[in-house]
Amino acid sequence: MGYDIETLQAIVAFMIAYGKPVSSAKISRELNVSQRTVQRYLRLLEDAGFVEAIRKGKSIKYVLLRPLTDEEAKRLVGISTESHANEPEVYALARRAIEVLKRDAQLPADLLGAAKVHLAVPEKHHRITHDIDIVVPPELLSASIALLKVTLGLIVERSGGIHTDAKLHDPSRGIKVDLIGGKLVEEGRVVLDLSEVLRKRGELTLEEAIVAKMTRRAFSYRNDAYDVAVALPVIDEGRWRSALELLKERGDPLLIPRLFKAIEITRGYVKGEMNPVERPYLVRKLEALERVAREVFKASA
């Protein structure tokens, strides 16, 4: 017996609106769905880590740990999520560029910035940018530039710069592609070195990319806070802690106050701009991430 996405999303939406532990019988009555069906879907959500069952004697109530993105809901019920037919051109190019470097050439490389967030939550992230940031180990810069020129027809604007190591662009779409050789640099000083992580693992976690974004010198309310806010549901606390440990080990100490300032800006964005139904969960999630950050940087915060 399979699952359908409408029933799954209806149960999740009810649990969000209800806002406290709820029994399967209550959900069944409110949605006019059999209790047996509700219990099947709750077990599916529990096994996937979205729902926790709270047992007291013979009574069982369920609490939603976090909402599902549309992409996650589709995966749970077995619907393919591989179609990118309507993807904005900039993110389609970002996806293809990473496929060329990582899958085809098997080079360690990954995205930073809005493109990294979009590919993680494409159904939630709707901000269009005209820049793609790609990070590779410094020794692979030349090979990466050559690959992107040959396979995607990108043109090199210049090699070397203040913040990037190479600037390319797609002349037909007006999209800029910045290549960074492993190290994030400000005014000639390395502020965060991602080279070793790329060499060891071949890619960055979403959480590492989010930390890099939140420690930028100019973290904006309208753009950067939006990117972080829509990514909150899929940020894993364990990987977030690991990303912060990387920042602590390989980042400039000046980045730590920026992180906490970015958390405050994001909190303001969530409270002022995000969907009221999702807002309480997002605020709690951000607070949990802030607690982890204060634990990691307790001597610095």
Give an overview of the whole structure:
It is a single chain. The strands form three sheets. Strands 3-4-7-6-5 form a five-stranded mixed β-sheet. A two-stranded antiparallel sheet has the order 1-2. With about 300 residues, it is of the alpha+beta class. It has three domains: about 5-75, Winged helix-like DNA-binding domain superfamily/Winged helix DNA-binding domain (Arc Repressor Mutant, subunit A), CATH 1.10.10.10; about 85-205, Beta Polymerase, domain 2, CATH 3.30.460; about 205-300, no CATH class. The mean pLDDT is about 90. The protein has helices at about 5-20, 25-30, 35-45, 70-75, 90-105, 115-120, 140-150, 195-200, 205-215, 225-230, 235-250, 255-275, 280-295, and strands at about 50-55, 60-65, 110, 130-135, 155-160, 165-170, 175-180, 185, 190-195. The radius of gyration is 21 Å and the shape is globular.
Distance between the termini: 52 Å
Low-confidence stretches: none
Total count of domains: 3
Question: What structural category arises from helix and sheet content?
Answer: alpha+beta
Outline the biggest β-sheet. Answer: 5 strands, mixed
In DSSP terms, counting alpha (H) and pi (I) runs of 4 or more, how many helices?
A: 13
Tell me the overall shape. Answer: globular
Give the SSE layout.
Elements: H1 5-18, H2 24-31, H3 35-47, E1 51-56, E2 59-64, H4 70-77, H5 89-104, E3 110-112, H6 113-120, E4 131-135, H7 141-152, E5 155-159, E6 166-170, E7 175-180, E8 183-186, E9 189-193, H8 195-201, H9 206-214, H10 224-231, H11 237-250, H12 255-273, H13 279-296
